[in-house]
Amino acid sequence: MLTLQILPQPLTVCKVSDLSGFAMAGLYFIGQTDSELSLVCETDKTPTNTTAREDGWRAMRIVGQLDFSLTGILSGIAAVLADAQVGIFAVSTYDTDYILVKQENRDRAVEALKAAGYGF
């Protein structure tokens, strides 16, 4: 059984023109492509140079280090939450995956995941 941990800090998903206004501290994820620079960060650390932003996200982290040979972990969680009508924003790191849900859907997401056998 996989265990998830609910992280306490509210998060913001945003686009930024550059990272000059962002102090790299706390929990954050940066994604850059040829067409955009995206940032997920603690809401109180959101830089002022955002070009678009959406506040009100909360994160759940899969506890432990996930081996790269494991398959279906994120898709299993996504399927449970899709069935519960909870949209997600997923971010992965070298060790594990993070599932972000809107604050207003957090309790419903946790209950659906618990019912599906996930621990917290």
Q: What is the H/E order?
A: EEEEEHEEH
Q: Which architecture would the CATH scheme give at its second level?
A: 2-Layer Sandwich
**Unreliable stretches, pLDDT < 50, 5 or more residues?**
none
Mind telling me the C-alpha Rg?
Answer: 15 Å
**What proportion of the residues is helical, as a percent range?**
10-25%
Name of the CATH homologous superfamily: VC0802-like
Distance between the termini: 10 Å
Find the structural class using helix and strand composition.
alpha+beta
Mean pLDDT: 94
CATH classification, class level: Alpha Beta
The CATH topology: VC0802-like
Strand content: 35-45%
Shape: globular
How many helical stretches?
2
Number of domains: 1
Biggest sheet character: 7 strands, antiparallel
Structure explained in plain terms:
This protein is an alpha+beta fold and 120 residues long. It has a single domain (4-115), classed as 2-Layer Sandwich (VC0802-like), CATH 3.30.2130. Helices cover 18% and strands 36% of the residues. The chain has 2 helices and 7 strands. The chain has helices at 73-83, 106-115, and strands at residues 4-6, 11-16, 28-32, 37-42, 50-62, 89-92, 97-102. Strands 1, 2, 3, 4, 5, 6 and 7 form a 7-stranded antiparallel β-sheet that branches. A hairpin with a 4-residue loop joins strand 6 (89-92) and strand 7. The longest helix is centred in the middle third of the chain and has 11 residues, at 73-83. The chain is globular and about 45 Å long. The N and C termini lie close together (10 Å). The relative contact order is 0.24. The model has no long low-confidence stretch (mean pLDDT 94).
